[in-house]
Amino acid sequence: MNDVWTSYDSKNFVLEGISLSIDRGTNYAIVGQSGSGKSTLLKLMNGMMIPSKGTIKIDYVTPNMNNKKFKKMLHTIGYIPQSLGLIKNITVLENILIGALPRLNTIQSLLKRFPEHEIQEAKRIISLVGLSGKEERKAYMLSGGEKRRVAIARALMQKPTILLADEIVSELDHVTAHEIMNLIADAQKRMNLTAIMVHHDMQIALEFANRVAVIKEGHKILEIGIEGDSIVDFQTGNINTEEIMEMYADDTKK
């Protein structure tokens, strides 16, 4: 991203002058308080929105649903919205198989007739995310942590190179949040994924991400990371480490 500005109403900008570069195969976190513009950043990367000005490139392609090159590569971007986007009245297996739809022909896709090798792949991923034995359980019957595992599995079923996740561990207890983040970290290594994740908890972000962008009121005010036992400032800011942790720590830990 280079000098990206974005508005929902062509008057008020929700993001202003955002520039960032994310290396392939890394875990990049975006942290900020509610309304700071974090989710909008993911929508820009997914082509769901286009910037008012500035440029965005993913592997030299501009994210835009009207861009034929981008539409061809869209299946390589696994997107998990804050709502998770699960269909509550179908099973775990059926929800996960939705990730395979881009690989089916038109008739298979319309009838949702999945080849046996896709079903076996979905079952393999179900095992990978720790949901073995729950293939036939309806999504509405699952716990919060289990629903997140299904959403991750559906994204992995796309065989993505990039995983975008919006507040994937929000409202989870500390133990479950770490289980989900460890699951993503494991999948990232297995599949050489580039993970870009929105968090509200700075401690979780610093624990799992290579770099953390701090967003405040539509501006990227800091870009930091952990090297050894130190927080390294990759973008000069006026806020010290203690102030960052205080402002952006999980409310339950304040």
How would the blueprint of this fold be written?
Blueprint: E1 2-7, E2 13-18, E3 27-31, H1 38-45, E4 53-55, H2 68-73, E5 77-80, H3 92-97, H4 106-111, H5 116-128, H6 144-157, E6 162-166, H7 174-191, E7 194-199, H8 202-208, E8 211-216, E9 219-227, E10 230-235, H9 241-248
Parallel strand pairs: 3-7, 3-8, 5-6, 6-7
Antiparallel strand pairs: 1-2, 1-4, 8-9, 9-10
Helix pairs in contact: 5-6, 6-7
Short description:
This protein has 254 residues and is an alpha/beta fold. The protein has nine helices and ten strands.
Task: Give descriptors for this structure.
single chain, 254 residues, alpha/beta, Rossmann fold, 7-stranded mixed β-sheet, 3-stranded antiparallel β-sheet, 9 helices, 10 strands, globular, disordered C terminus
Structure description:
The chain has 254 residues and is of the alpha/beta class. It has one domain: 3-Layer(aba) Sandwich (Rossmann fold). The protein is built from 9 helices and 10 strands. The chain has a 7-stranded mixed beta sheet with strand order 5-6-7-3-8-9-10, sandwiched between helices. Strands 2-1-4 form a 3-stranded antiparallel beta sheet, with no helix packed on it. The longest helix has 18 residues.
